[in-house]
From TrEMBL:
<keyword id="KW-0408">Iron</keyword>
<keyword id="KW-0349">Heme</keyword>
<keyword id="KW-0812">Transmembrane</keyword>
<feature type="binding site" description="axial binding residue">
    <location>
        <position position="517"/>
    </location>
    <ligand>
        <name>heme</name>
    </ligand>
</feature>
<dbReference type="InterPro" id="IPR001128">
    <property type="entry name" value="Cyt_P450"/>
</dbReference>
<comment type="similarity">
    <text>Belongs to the cytochrome P450 family.</text>
</comment>
<dbReference type="InterPro" id="IPR036396">
    <property type="entry name" value="Cyt_P450_sf"/>
</dbReference>
<dbReference type="InterPro" id="IPR017972">
    <property type="entry name" value="Cyt_P450_CS"/>
</dbReference>
<keyword id="KW-1133">Transmembrane helix</keyword>
<dbReference type="GO" id="GO:0004497">
    <property type="term" value="F:monooxygenase activity"/>
</dbReference>
<dbReference type="InterPro" id="IPR002401">
    <property type="entry name" value="Cyt_P450_E_grp-I"/>
</dbReference>
<feature type="transmembrane region" description="Helical">
    <location>
        <begin position="6"/>
        <end position="24"/>
    </location>
</feature>
<dbReference type="GO" id="GO:0043386">
    <property type="term" value="P:mycotoxin biosynthetic process"/>
</dbReference>
<dbReference type="GO" id="GO:0005506">
    <property type="term" value="F:iron ion binding"/>
</dbReference>
<keyword id="KW-0479">Metal-binding</keyword>
<keyword id="KW-0503">Monooxygenase</keyword>
<keyword id="KW-0560">Oxidoreductase</keyword>
């Protein structure tokens, strides 16, 4: 007994000594680097803290004294969204550098930065600053892919992936999105409260937006038939419990955590334990998802074999297969595991990011309706008055500059990816705006998108001359960089480029450098297509709650925007899954 206690005692002492050693080592490293630093006697990257601190955030904020909370919050995942530039102004600037600071803790040394030079350097040097292993754990469930790998393995996959996302795919995405959005509008207006006048109210609009993005990725990505109404769509295969799209939805919704639970445990989850129904569903989805992918791949192989794809059908899977088969050198071709991994990744990386950007834009347009008037001028110039005439991708998309401006402004203030993280296995010299620094091995560099996107040296008053006349009458208490003002993205007429190009490293919603998001154009095409269709005949606003005054509606929407939660991507709390959360009532009103 006493020897057992002794062993436990020795282990505890060793653990604490290791903690103390790492803290001491990181503080010394921070001092020698010369950047501002904060000391934390905890390990913010500890997996238990990572998982528990996010749900505990509201409670910790309530119970902790303000001074402690203000410091502790910087160790909780996603703090960038809540704290904006405060830590840079309050802690870093007084120590002599307002763009970067270090956190010296009992974990790894962390460099938090809103320095465009550091951001571009780190994202450019993919061999020195690598994707961390946690990404692989969450997103490599169905095979390693372009996001979860580094070095040569990444380079090989990236080359194939980049070659398949091309203009043919953009056209497919555009047409598919127009079709899905028409389906959404038909459903909304069919059950609409005021069908005669073409108006409708629903709490499910954001769920429907999510459905658009998942259907588009299924159709344009995997060639799965996904008409808006499921009765006309994919049939349940014999021997399966879920269709491909159902399995896809369940898997994607669990990507932030439960997905790492092994399938066999999920399938045998005891019914008396909490979360039984959801975890069991996830088990089925995880089990069936790769089987569906395999069937779809075989069908596509057969189609290629039969040369049916030459009839113009173009989806990511067919392009990936053809690209893989065109590689004569086997070492350059994607393995079966990589093919499956990348097909999963396209859906995982493209679905929520695009859905959330659309949802934020809709809430922002409802909150600031005058920007809808600004968009109507463009939409009316680009779209036929006859709703049954489909817009043509190649002529409409390049001219939709105001809609793109709304997308960029939405991504500036509410980027789905609030930071990107890289680690360096070996010591690295790194250029910063204040000179070179030496980072010790195994440091973490966290590039803070939110702080970069609010930089007061870059964003205030850009392109004021492009503002509509009513902007000057706005009585806005917020500084311009924190204000939703899409016209900042429109250059004056006669400029070489129609749209504002921010200085290098200052606007990173899609990342930067060799690993920049390959789905950037896909997301843009989808965004533009949804907005064109929704605004073609309607304006959007929020349905007031009982006895709610207009100013109170605005305050509620402000609350919705600021109560966002950084999960895998930034999400407004309670807008999806209306059946459980109640959703947010939105109204489409006919404007013609
Ligand atoms: C508004 C929509 C989107 C946003 C804001 C977004 C954002 C990002 C960001 C920030 C990264 C870089 C992550 C890092 O460097 O750590 C990234 C990478 C990636 N994205 Fe997107 N994304 C969007 C849409 C899409 C779509 C539609 C797809 C594909 C269908 C896609 C596929 C990918 C892939 C495969 C990577 C990994 C690239 C690599 O590591 O080489 N994304 N995305």
């Amino acid at each position: 007994m006493s020897s057992g206690v002794g062993i436990v005692g020795v282990l505890v002492v060793l653990y604490l000594t290791n903690f103390a050693y790492r803290l001491f080592r990181n503080v010394n490293a921070a001092k020698s680097i010369g950047l501002p630093f904060l000391v934390y006697p905890i390990d913010p990257s500890n997996i238990i803290w990572l998982l528990t601190s996010v749900p505990l955030r509201p409670w910790l904020k309530r119970i902790l004294p303000a001074q402690i909370w203000k410091r502790l919050t910087l160790t909780i995942y996603g703090w960038e969204f809540y704290e904006k530039r405060r830590p840079f102004e309050e802690y870093a600037a007084p120590q002599g550098n307002q763009k970067s600071f270090l956190i010296a803790s009992c974990g790894s040394l962390e460099l938090h930065t809103a320095d465009p030079i550091v951001a571009t350097e780190v994202l450019r040097r993919t061999n020195d600053f690598k994707m961390p292993p946690l990404t692989g754990l969450l997103l490599g469930q169905f095979g390693h892919n372009v996001l979860t790998t580094n070095g040569e393995r990444w380079a090989k996959q990236r080359k194939v992936v980049a070659s398949v996302i091309n203009e043919r795919i953009s056209k497919t995405i555009f047409d598919s999105t127009v079709c899905q959005t028409t389906g959404m509008l038909d459903e909304l207006l069919f059950v609409g409260t005021d069908r005669e006048r073409g108006s409708a109210e629903s709490t499910k609009m954001f769920d429907m937006i999510k459905q658009i993005t998942i259907h588009v990725l299924s159709e344009a990505g995997m060639g799965v038939k996904a008409p808006w109404r499921s009765k006309d769509g994919e049939k349940l295969r014999s021997g399966f419990k879920m269709t491909y799209i159902e399995a896809c939805k369940v898997v994607m919704e669990s990507v932030t955590g439960p997905i790492i639970i092994p399938t066999s445990i999920l399938l045998n989850w005891p019914s008396w334990l909490p979360g039984y129904r959801k975890l069991k569903q996830l088990g089925i989805a995880k089990h069936e998802f790769p089987m569906h992918t395999e069937i779809l791949l075989n069908q596509e192989r057969q189609r290629i074999w039969d040369k049916k794809t030459s009839s113009g059908q173009s989806n990511i899977m067919s392009q990936l297969l053809q690209a893989a088969e065109e590689q004569e050198n086997e070492a350059k071709a994607l393995s079966k595991e990589e093919l499956n991994g990348n097909l999963f990744l396209f859906t995982a990386a493209g679905f929520e990011t695009t859905a959330n950007t659309l949802s934020y834009a809709i809430v922002l347009l409802a909150r600031y309706p005058r920007w809808q008037e600004w968009l109507f001028e463009e939409v009316d110039a680009l779209m036929s008055t006859d709703v049954s005439v489909s817009p043509e991708y190649s002529s409409v998309f390049p001219r939709a500059t105001r809609i793109m401006a709304v997308m960029l402004e939405t991504l500036r203030l509410y980027p789905p990816v609030v930071h990107v993280l890289r680690t360096n296995e070996t010591p690295q010299e790194l250029m910063t705006s204040e000179g070179m620094i030496s980072l010790p091995a195994n440091s973490s560099v966290i590039i803070n998108h939110i702080a970069l996107h609010l930089d007061p040296d870059v964003w205030p008053d850009v392109n004021r001359c492009s503002d509509p006349s009513w902007v000057h009458t706005d009585n806005n208490e917020l500084p311009d960089e924190s204000t939703f003002r899409p016209s900042r993205w429109i250059n004056p007429l006669g400029s070489a480029r129609p749209m504002y190009q921010p200085p290098k490293g200052c606007f990173l919603p899609w990342g930067h450098g060799p690993r920049v998001c390959p789905g950037q154009k896909m997301g843009q095409v989808e965004f533009v297509a949804v907005m064109l269709k929704v605004l073609q005949r309607h304006r959007i606003d929020a349905v007031p709650l009982i006895a709610e005054k207009p100013r109170e509606v605005e305050q509620r929407l402000d609350g919705l925007l600021s109560n966002s939660v950084p999960k895998m991507t930034l999400i407004m709390d309670g807008i999806y899954d209306a059946g459980t959360t109640g959703g947010v009532g939105m109204r489409l009103t006919s404007r013609k």
